[in-house]
Amino acid sequence: MSTKQSLYVFDVDGTITRDDSFLLLVKFVCPNVLRRYMIWLRASAVLPSAILKGDYSKIKYRVLSLLFKNKRSGELDKTGLDFYNAVLSTNIRSKANDYLINLSRESGSIVFLSASCEFWLKPLADAYNATLISSKLEFKEGFFTGRLSGDNCKGEEKKRRLQAMFPADKYIFICFGNSASDRKLEAISEAYHHDFFV
């Protein structure tokens, strides 16, 4: 009889970070307040139905398109690393940092599961030796098209991607989250912790 491996699964934004990494990224790449306001205005003006429905992810990806469309993947990777070093690395909750460091020392298997995008979360995942499952941008011939590749990694999609990569017959999930959509992980978790690091 084989033993299942324990997998520690963490939502990123608001769970292990104090703030939403996307908002921090926008501020980092666009420090001018007026320009930032104009980008938000342009993004929300073309998507009024998204605002009415409370679907802010469409606005989020519209902003990413306005900021980064036609940028090379290597350029975005560098932006992500610079952002991690300057901003994101200092935004980790201290309790989460201690917990993740202890897990790493004990050779615990760590997964970061996020609706935020790979290019700015990969340096964070690398810092904790974690597997990253996140939303991905679409690239053609090395350039960002302005669209997502696949679905936004949120709610049910988080569950689907996690189980596709780590089958439930081989893994036990210990999940950590902070939002209503993260609570969907509770159904597949051996243990689910909400706002654990707050």
UniProtKB/TrEMBL annotation:
SUPFAM superfamilies: HAD-like (SSF56784). NCBIfam families: HAD-SF-IB. Signal peptide: none annotated. InterPro entries: HAD-like_sf, HAD_sf. It comes from the Bacteria. It holds the Pfam family HAD. This is HAD-IB family phosphatase.
